[in-house]
Amino acid sequence: xxxxxxxxxxxxxxxxxxxxxxxxxxxxxxxxxxxxxxxxxxxxxxxxxxxxxxxxxxxxxxxxxxxxxxxxxxxxxxxxxxxxxxxxxxxxxxxxxxxxxxxxxxxxxxxxxxxxxxxxxxxxxxxxxxxxxxxxxxxxxxxxxxxxxxxxxxxxxxxxxxxxxxxxxxxxxxxxxxxx
Length: 180
Known about the structure:
Oligomer: single chain
Structural class: mainly alpha
Mean pLDDT: 79
Shape: globular
Distance between the termini: 25 Å
């Protein structure tokens, strides 16, 4: 166990501020675009370019409409994810992954969780998520979904760079490769 130095403490604070700032930005964009979609798309679709259109859908399932009828389970999993990331980041166990990407996933999870909490539905966190970006050849999605998918793909692609190095005795040694 090593002691915290002012440099690592500053790095942890910066990591958490970036993570929180990106998450807040994603939630704000997601909720503003969903509000707009509810206002503007309730009685029409907007064709943009090629197959891209804006088309309002209320999704009670998970990503891309999978898992219909499992609203509460999906919401609880999302809530647990938010709690784990918050605990790991602010509990002194800073995740050795880029805070921008973690913030995108966290913000997306919170944005969709907010829909489940405030939209009418059955039971605890049983509301529907507002989706409106429709490619017509892919399930309809929203800004939160986009943030989660883009960050998830990036995390999978870069994860090998962020493995925790091990010391000679086999114990974890917090890595320096944590800034994005």
